[in-house]
Amino acid sequence: MTPQLIVTVDENQDATVVHCSGRLTIEAGNTLRTEVQKFIKPKAKIVLDLTNVTHCDSMGMGTVISLYVSSKSAGSRLEIINMSQTIRKLFSMANILSLFEGAVDPTSRIP
User: Which of 25, 70, 103, 110 has its CA 20 to 30 A from that of 52?
Assistant: First the structure.
């Protein structure tokens, strides 16, 4: 069985990029939340790279929303890049796609 979610982090001057691989589901939500919350602080920029996320359910989306709220409350910025069409559609149906700058432009990629 493939791992639920693998999270790797690249910190650089401009942003902290959190690369996610696997399935973003209820089981994986705590892993992502724990990892990202380490970097939430005033004026921080956190980028969730969903290039290798193969599935996202409503609980996974809930995790992303809670991270967005925590980031905004702390005065930092959370962006999402490299969303698959399926995840983009899920976020769009939930009416939250517009919350994530960077997620709006489907060509937005970080190598």
Answer: 70
Our CA angle for 12, 13, 17, nearest 5°, is: 40
What's the rounded Cα separation, in Å, for the pair 97 and 84? 12
Q: What is the pLDDT of residues 43-62, one digit of tens each?
A: 999 999 999 999 999 999 99
pLDDT of residue 111: 43
Q: Which residues lie across from 11 on neighbouring strands?
A: 16
- Apex 11 CA angle, 54 and 44, nearest 5: 95
How many whole angstroms separate alpha carbon 25 and alpha carbon 4?
Answer: 8
Q: Are 100 and 88 in contact (CB under 8 A)?
A: no
